[in-house]
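Have a close read of this protein, sequence plus structure tokens, and explain what the tokens say about the fold. Thanks in advance:
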Amino acid sequence: MSEKNVLRKLLVSLKRKPALIAMFVLLVAFVVYTFSLTNVSHTTSRINKSNMGLAEFATILLSVLSMVCFMNAYPRRKKPNYLMLGLSLALVVIVIICDSVYIGKIAEALNDPRSQLDTAKETYILATRGMLNVHRVILVIGGALAVLVPWYGKLLRKINTNVNIEGNSDMAAIEIEGND
């Protein structure tokens, strides 16, 4: 199968379900956080401030729940379920708040004069902080895409994905014979 045909089929599927774009971005945010979970856990155990473990747990749990709600927000061949979409977006906002709380705890520990943190040796702390900033940006993009599905769905439908087949150009010249 040619690359052009693969791209055409991808565009056709996105025209049918434009919400897949936002779902993919939310999935990327979940994967980014999950792949960095070792650094997050090490940071939580090393800094050990209040509510850090809770924020870490809530981020994972609410990320999964927001994706489940988002999948139910756009059922197949039905109108969008705005309650599920709102719930999904609320969960994304709570995850962003949890990330912000966690970043605040890291900043609090790094700025504490009594702290014995050595970021030269404990590079996972700065890696976690950087990952959380990236995670929040991806979540904001995913939330914006979730809200904008109706608008970019209309734009996607305007893309021509028809296949030109030889011999179909003069369809008007073909006469259909029928029994009179």
